[in-house]
Structures are given as structure tokens and as C-alpha cells.
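Quick one, C-alpha cells below. Sequence please?
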């Protein structure tokens, strides 16, 4: 990955605007006490109220790259409720980038959801296309006719995962090790596109086991994608990770009454707000099954990937 100056004006702007490193918070429960587990939450949800969690981690080096190249326009993709669209629009507002969002669903408009309304208010130019057309563009965006007017923009894929994303995610692992004073036994995170867990795996200590909770139904194809991303980042694959495939509660953005009840109780007990699409499913899986897999006296870090749109 290209090197970026730590003293550039843009880097200084990041440090002034964002809460980094994000805090790490220990949580307590009788369930943990029974096995002498030390359980921490990496609070990436607190990085910023609008550019939070893994979305900022993935955007960071994309924005630094654009800034270094003198490019002030970002084009990206997503659906009507996309956290990535939300965060990208906010980043454009705060860091003075033009943002263009190609949105899946030609029946939509900027008032179809609070996410799209927020993006439009931030100045993002929204282009609505059919789901079929969206798939065509996403397959090869740089050569698609719709993108030609924006050929001088930096193109970031749906969800934000590309060659620059993993380095930003990897910084989270460095922060955790410094904050704890040692590498934890386990790091656990939700898995959507595979970018976040890939960045964690690539930067993790070999002695740390990485567990991913897949939020998609039939998401097994992601394992190959994760191996590809890790190998591209560090030149080799690693075997210190495992994905749990059956904790999705029906599929992406699906919810069960048990999940909703758990989230309410978790928020009451720990005073940490979580959402049902990513982090909620991961915390639920940890309480219901993962904690039973972990040996006594282990140190566990759960990654709160944000996703709490204002």
C-alpha cells in the first residue's frame, strides 16, 4: 500500500475531527465470571457520530490516497440503508470531497430513507439505477458508460472494501494491542463483505484467534474472498480464523424476536447501543454460543463496527 505522510494537512484534519484511537471498554457478566473471561468491546462506534466504525476504517486510506493525488471527488455504491453511503457522504462533507452515490433501486429517491435523505443533505449526488443495471456497473465500474462522466473520481466499491481498506482496519488491531498491553486471545467481529475481518486477520498476531459472525445467509463464498484479500495484503494466507455461518437470524438485515429482545437487554445492562444487522448479531452469537467455545482465562475483544446512524 502507498505510504502516506503522518504530517500532511489532511492527516492533521483527521486527528482533529475523529476520536482515535477508539476506546476499549471492559464489560462484565456472570457468564464471563464462570470461566474467568476478560471481555472487552472495541468501541469503533465512538470514532465519530456520522463516520464511525469499520466504515471509517475502510475510508481512511481511500481518502488519503485521493488527497495525495489531488482528486476531490469520490464515487461509490450502495443501497437505500447503506452505512457505507451514509459514512461516505458525511466524510465528503467534513473533508471537502465531492461525493457521488450510485444507488440500487430505480424506484427510489433522496427521500426514500433517512440514509438517502442524510446523504443528500451532506451534498452527495445520488444516481438511482435498476438492480440489474446496478449489478452490471458493480462488476466493472471503471469501464461502464454511467461512470464516464466521473472518470476523474476515485471509485470505492460497495461496502468500501478494496486495496486501501485493509490497512485502515489493521490499525484497529494495533490500537487493541497497545491499549491492552498484549495481543488478546480472541478478536471477534461481524462479517458482511469480508473486508473488516480480512484486515484484522492480516494484522493480527498468530496466537490470536479471529472469529467472524457471518450476517448473511449462504455466505460461505466469503471464505475464499477473505483468503484472497489477506494474501493480497500480506503476501500469504493465514489459518488463525474461523467463520460462524449460522448466526444470521434469517439473512442480511433479517431479525428474529430473540435478537431484538437480546439487543434491548444488552443495551440496558451495558449502556452500549448496538444495531441488529451487524454488531447485534455478533454480540448475540457471543453470548449464545461463542463464549462456550472459548477456554477459561481467555481475553476476548469484540469489535463494535458502528452502524448506528443518527
Amino acid at each position: 500500500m502507498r505510504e502516506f505522510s503522518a504530517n500532511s494537512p489532511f492527516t492533521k484534519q483527521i486527528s482533529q475531527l475523529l476520536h482515535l484511537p477508539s476506546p476499549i471498554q471492559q464489560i462484565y457478566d456472570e457468564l464471563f465470571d464462570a470461566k474467568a473471561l476478560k471481555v472487552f468491546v472495541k468501541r469503533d462506534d465512538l470514532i465519530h457520530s456520522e463516520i464511525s466504525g469499520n466504515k471509517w476504517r475502510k475510508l481512511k486510506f481511500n481518502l488519503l490516497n485521493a488527497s495525495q493525488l489531488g482528486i476531490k471527488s469520490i464515487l461509490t455504491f450502495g443501497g437505500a440503508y447503506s452505512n457505507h453511503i451514509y459514512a461516505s457522504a458525511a466524510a465528503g462533507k467534513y473533508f471537502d470531497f465531492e461525493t457521488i452515490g450510485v444507488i440500487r433501486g430505480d424506484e427510489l429517491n433522496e427521500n426514500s430513507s433517512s440514509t438517502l435523505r442524510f446523504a443528500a443533505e451532506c451534498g452527495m449526488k445520488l444516481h438511482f439505477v435498476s438492480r440489474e443495471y446496478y449489478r452490471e456497473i458493480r462488476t466493472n465500474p471503471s469501464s461502464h458508460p454511467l461512470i464516464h462522466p466521473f472518470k476523474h473520481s476515485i471509485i470505492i466499491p460497495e461496502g468500501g472494501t478494496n486495496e486501501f481498506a485493509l490497512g485502515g482496519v489493521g490499525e484497529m488491531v494495533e490500537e487493541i494491542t497497545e491499549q491492552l498491553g498484549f495481543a488478546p486471545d480472541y478478536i471477534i467481529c461481524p462479517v458482511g463483505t469480508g473486508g473488516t475481518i480480512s484486515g484484522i486477520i492480516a494484522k493480527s498476531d498468530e496466537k490470536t484467534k479471529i472469529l467472524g459472525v457471518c450476517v448473511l445467509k449462504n455466505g460461505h463464498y466469503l471464505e475464499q474472498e477473505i483468503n484472497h484479500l489477506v494474501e493480497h495484503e500480506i503476501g500469504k494466507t493465514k489459518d488463525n480464523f474461523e467463520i460462524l455461518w449460522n448466526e444470521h437470524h434469517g439473512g442480511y438485515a433479517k431479525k428474529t424476536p430473540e435478537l431484538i429482545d437480546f439487543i434491548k437487554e444488552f443495551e440496558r445492562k451495558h449502556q452500549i447501543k448496538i444495531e441488529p444487522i451487524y454488531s447485534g448479531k455478533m454480540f448475540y452469537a457471543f453470548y449464545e454460543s461463542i463464549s462456550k467455545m472459548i477456554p477459561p482465562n481467555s481475553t476476548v475483544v469484540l469489535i463494535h463496527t458502528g452502524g448506528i446512524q443518527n
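The chain has a mean pLDDT of 94. The CA atoms of residues 9 and 67 lie 10 Å apart.
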